[in-house]
TrEMBL record:
CDD domains: TM_PBP2 (cd06261). Belongs to the binding-protein-dependent transport system permease family. One of its GO terms (biological process) is transmembrane transport. The lineage of its organism: Bacteria, Bacillati, Actinomycetota, Actinomycetes, Kitasatosporales. GO terms for cellular component: plasma membrane. This is Peptide/nickel transport system permease protein. The keyword Transport applies.
Length: 304
């Protein structure tokens, strides 16, 4: 059990405190109507990503040149068979937007998870041990921060090649610094607390102290950073795909759809606008959710 103060906890006090915090956190979240809307939108996206073959009306790569550049159904010349119209090869835009959700959510979640694991391990080690491990690890973080993340990602992808897992790996490796810095700061403030000193005194190993006592105390800020990193990774993946350095062209992504549609903005606006709207709304919803989680993690929010 992780202690949060020097006073010895009474039996059952920690579970009762945890049970008391959960309803307060839920109430704080529900008071934020914008966050509720964002969470509902993300839930819809998740359902669309998982059940894309059932939701999408057509194969996203099926071509029909006779129906190329068909406007949306509500516009003159549109077709009820293609609600959002078709692209320059006659592919259904609604199906492609739905399937593009899969790549965006997978890349965002995968990159945030990988970066979170790397950054948490580095931050725990640097903050707990201090001294030369801290100096070495933080200098590595400074070196990475000296390079713009998107340029570093472009260089790595250009060297190793494109691919879904390469993109996740690259975005994860280039995004760990923010996690490490926050975890290090939190751990440095906790390592001198009585519960850590007492754990050392009874022979608890350093790894066990970090895992059982320190890690649970940094999960709240990690959740906030992770949520915001998902949005950044989604935009970064779209940027790489827009430049032709993301996932292969046969895999539907919002970034590649934007690249294909830029030539038709003047005549067939829907080819680029709909994936752009999907990308914007998804990033906005994730950022709003991250802000809400930050408020929930703040104990002062429960008293407002």
């Amino acid at each position: 059990m992780t202690l949060t103060s020097s006073a010895p906890p009474t039996a059952g006090a920690a579970p009762e405190a945890a049970r008391g915090r959960r309803p307060a956190a839920v109430r704080t979240l529900l008071r934020n109507r914008l966050a509720v809307v964002a969470l509902a939108f993300l839930a819809v996206l998740l359902v669309a990503a998982v059940f894309a073959p059932l939701i999408a009306p057509d194969d996203p790569n099926a071509q029909d040149l006779l129906m190329r550049l068909t406007p949306p159904a509500w516009q003159h010349g549109g077709s009820g068979a293609h609600l959002l119209g078709t692209d320059q090869l006659g592919r259904d835009m609604l199906s492609r937007v739905v399937y593009g959700t899969r790549v965006s959510l997978l890349v965002g979640a995968g990159a945030a998870l990988l970066a979170g694991v790397i950054g948490t391990v580095v931050g725990l080690a640097a903050g707990y041990f201090g001294g030369w491990p801290d100096r070495v690890l933080m200098r590595l973080a400074d070196v990475q921060l000296a390079f713009p993340s998107i340029l570093l990602a472009l260089a790595i992808v250009g060297f190793f090649g494109s691919g879904l897992w390469y993109v996740i790996l690259v975005l994860g490796i280039t995004g760990w610094v923010s996690y490490a810095r926050v975890v290090r700061s939190e751990v440095m403030s906790l390592r001198s607390r009585d519960f850590v000193t007492e754990a050392r005194a009874i022979g608890v190993t350093d790894v066990a102290i970090m895992r059982r006592h320190l890690l649970p105390n940094v999960m709240a800020p990690l959740a906030t950073i992770g949520t915001l990193h998902i949005a950044a990774a989604i935009v970064a993946e779209a940027s790489l795909s827009y430049l032709g350095l993301g996932v292969p062209k046969e895999t539907v992504t919002w970034g590649s759809m934007l690249a294909d549609g830029q030539l038709y903005l003047g005549t067939s606006w829907w080819v680029a606008v709909f994936p752009g709207i999907a990308l914007m709304l998804t990033s906005l919803a994730v950022n709003i959710t991250g802000d809400a989680l930050r408020d929930v993690a703040d104990p002062k929010a429960y008293r407002r």
